[in-house]
Amino acid sequence: MLKALRQIIQTMLAQPDFKEALQLMVQHVVDLLQTDACSLYLLDKQRGEYRLVAAQGLNPDAIMKVSVPVHQGLIGWVGEREEPVNLENANQHPQFLSIPLLQEENYKAFLGVPIIYHRRVFGVLIVQQRTANCFDESTEAFLVTLAVQLAPVIASADASGKMAVLLENQHSYTEEARYAGIPGAPGIGIGTGVAIYPLLELDAVPDRKIEDIDAEIHLLEIAFAASRKDVRLLAERISPNLPVEERSLFDVYQRMLDSADLGAEMIHLIRKGNWAPGALRVVIQSHVNRLENSDNIYLRERAIDIKDLGLRILSYLQNNPRHLPNYPEKTILVGEALTAVDLAEVPEGCLVGMVSVKGSRNSHVAILARAMGVPTIMGVENLSVHELNAKEMIIDGYYGQIYVSPMSKLRKKFERLLTEERELNESLEVLRDQPADTADGKHVTLLVNTGLGADVGLALAAGAEGVGLYRTETPFLMRDRFPSGEEQRVIYRQLLASFAPRPVTMRTLDVGGDKVLSYFPVLEENPFLGWRGLRISLDHPEIFLVQLRAMLRASEKYHNLRIMLPMVTDVSEVDEALRLFKKACQEVMTEDVNIKIPAIGVMIEVPSAVSAAGAIAKRVDFLSVGSNDLTQYILAVDRNNARVANLYDALHPAVLRALLQVVESAHQENKPVSICGEIAGDPSAVPLLIAMGFDSLSMNASALMRTKCVVRKLTMDIAKTLLQEVLMMESAVTIRCHMELALKKLGLEHIIRVGKR
Ligand code: PEP
Ligand code: MG
């Protein structure tokens, strides 16, 4: 059954026409289940009805013509119940709706299964048969499984607009394709998509329109000729050492390359206006799918060969300068897994946004994007990268939304928001040299989070009083080996010099989880609960000590270094880290360098550290709450998973109570406590954090002015009252609404309005 399911879905995906793909699917189901009919109804939300879009065993003339109002008939009933309906005799059921055009009078048994994706019903899949017997359990289980696998395909078609086209829904044309992901960097970007595909990844190659068809065909022929020569040389070189059977593989390759079909199919697509790499992708993929679905083992193995050959031809095409991307004036990069290098290749001033299918807020490309103020969306499911190439797009980095080919109404709305954003930033400029003091005179220390040199200027320009979090893993992520002690010292010194005499808090290496070093892969079932942060540093004292010594040496004469330890679960880890820290200090002290022993602190990022905050505070000089991780561990919500992102909110009462507990524990030990997660720059959270007594807030440079604006409007009384009020509340949603209302009353509507729809 699993194989059959895979085949059905793969055949569907290989079919470029959505309608035909659905029709193929219902035909397969009838064949496989040996049933009399299978049909698919998709929900047309605009019209409030289910439309028959594919059918086998029913009157073919009914396809696209029959619709069932959303709350009527057995179809409406399945959708409403959101569970399978398995009936022995459908005609006798009170919900049965007779539609003569379907010609289903002879069918008695009925099994309908809803197609649901992320709680939303997209359609109903039905099988029917003449005999009046309920479908057996295995058929029901099969259809449920198929519907679950079908759901993301249909949701994706809905997002990309294919479904609207299929339903010929005139109303739908007033809506643009939308995708949702994780906000990677705030801001709004309006521009043109440029699909970036990694070298030698055929599946990611986008379609691209071309003008000069003959030139494109010529390039394809050159690539074919070069590949032919490669295969011949390879065969000559290694064939003598190969057994006859393996040698024949090269003959197969040559035959494929010589085959008039393969080249002709591609040329046909080029003549239709696609560029050579796009034509290559389509043709190779269709052959691979056909071969992979074959029952013959020999043919299935040929799928690998043809893929291999496709990559070889692609490598020649990709080498050609004509095939390098053109960057429009307002470029939005779109890729499976964008890298810092992709970003760097865009000409200066042309990059207005980025969208990455994979990755998270902590991917270094997202960190870089935040530092450079480029609106970015990460982790976008259901996105077909090559379809976004050359498309007009809007990206909303506040909410993680993407709008493709926006209608003018939406475009105008976002242009207005973009102007508001610009005006707000300009209006905040006047605050640069003003202190971050509340209206009643309490000073709040505002620090920045940084990871790269690129954001230092921005931070200083925004009037940061120092660095509350320097993510040292960034230079580690950017390399293909561990940076040496001296390389690290140079990087750290630059940062300390830029901020001196202001304090700079450097966090020791925090890799693991979703931050994987290519040269130090950590493959785990559950990486967020695994080997990460300080756990790795303690298990590799040679790496940890090199880093600590580099930090200490870098601080020479500046004396503005502070060090902090990430992902601490237990005091024993703190004790061991302190032992190594002392060792590093002693070693560096013997080198005749002018350093002072820096303050050392611990990040509170997991629930156990919240409970142990007092014991930890006793041992170190300061605490700093990493609310990004703390939120994910308290709420058990992966901070990078778009599917559960609606549950992730640092304003959850459980998180707020934990924050308060940490502040109280630190202050009982007379130790300062900072907060450096994203919450520190969230206007709705700032009054609460100040009222709790955090000694400093550390945030992205881009959030600094807004936070200062909030601080200056507040009084401690107002902040404390708000804290008392929200501590009585039961959910994050209520708390967020309450805080937004309070900010509005303080005249801070403009601060929360940017990014609000
Ligand atoms: C945090 O977890 O809140 C934090 C600041 O660290 P990071 O986001 O780098 O994990
Ligand atoms: Mg963290």
Summarize the entry for a quick read:
By secondary structure, this protein is an alpha/beta fold.
User: How large a portion of the residues is in β-strands, by DSSP E?
Assistant: 15-25%
Number of strands: 22
Query: How many distinct domains?
Result: 4
Number of helices: 28
Can you tell me the residue ranges where pLDDT is under 50 for at least 5 consecutive residues?
none
Bound molecules: phosphoenolpyruvate, magnesium ion
Q: What separation lies between the terminal Cα atoms? A: 46 Å
Question: What's the gyration radius in Å?
Answer: 30 Å
Q: Please state the average pLDDT score.
A: 89
CATH architecture of the largest domain: Alpha-Beta Barrel
Q: Helical amount among residues, as a percent range? A: 40-55%
In the CATH hierarchy, the third-tier topology of the largest domain is known as TIM Barrel
- Find the structural class using helix and strand composition: alpha/beta
In CATH terms, the superfamily of the largest domain is: Phosphoenolpyruvate-binding domains
Largest pleated sheet: 8 strands, mixed
Q: Rough shape?
A: globular
The CATH class of the largest domain is identified as Alpha Beta
Spatial strand sequence of the major β-sheet:
7-14-13-9-10-11-12-8
